[in-house]
Amino acid sequence: xENTNDMPLGSQAQVEAxxxxxxxxxxxxxxxxxxxxxxxxxxxxxxxxxxxxxxxQRQARELVFDAFNSVSVPEALLLGFTNPRGAxxxxxxxxxxxxRCRPVRLxxxxxxxxxxxxxxxxxxxxxxSSLVAHGLSRPQRPSEMESxxxxxxxAVAGSGAQQxxxxxxxxxxxxxxxxxxxxxxxxELRNLPxxxxxxxxxxxxxxxxxSGAIVTGRERQILGWLxxxxxxxxxxxxxxxxxxxxxxxxxxxxxxxxxxxxxxxVARAMTMNLLDRSPVDAGTSD
Length: 286
Known about the structure:
By secondary structure, this protein is of the alpha+beta class. It is built from 11 helices and 6 strands. Helices cover about 50% and strands about 15% of the residues. The radius of gyration is 20 Å and the shape is globular. It comes from Roseateles agri.
């Protein structure tokens, strides 16, 4: 396990990337926007394929976690990461506190104890090599966490790993405030209808017309495979259709969800609860 020391920022490009990430965070209001932000602006500074976000909720009186993943991750592993009282998150938070609330990186193999053995094996099987954790606590009360984040990485090595931890320390105030803003906005939207955004209009239409009225069963299935990071060719081979047919489906999905790219389409589909089922079970009707 490593904890960071004061380090130079590095190249001018890295400085500019940090500024862009901080500035673009101000525009993030929704859950899908947060996912897109982490997959674009944060990737250059902290490459990762799994993001675990925790925010303290006063009603629950504990951190409540959510997960974003750009690669396939077993459901049991996601449950382990989102269980605030589970052995996995307790160990990661303990390592962070031991590092005096500085960013910590540990190899997946460093997860110790019988209680996390299954999670360690699942992470290794999914190709993850390291975890980076950081958060924010109340002033003078390090154990009273306001937020806690874990980033799962599949391949990071060398001095760049320490540099990325330093980037995370610089960006943590922005990540913290952005995630809390998203939580507030999502709670408000659950209580008050938002008729102004394209996503809300699509979600409302979906609810009025019933499941699948906007996105077909085949499109839901393709969205599921997009979430797994598969190409048009790979999806076509699985479904027994041509890559061109898959491309046409993807273009329809982007139009229906008013998404600019695949990552945004997946994020919006997640917000609309279109990906609760596996791609195999999502149906095949056109």
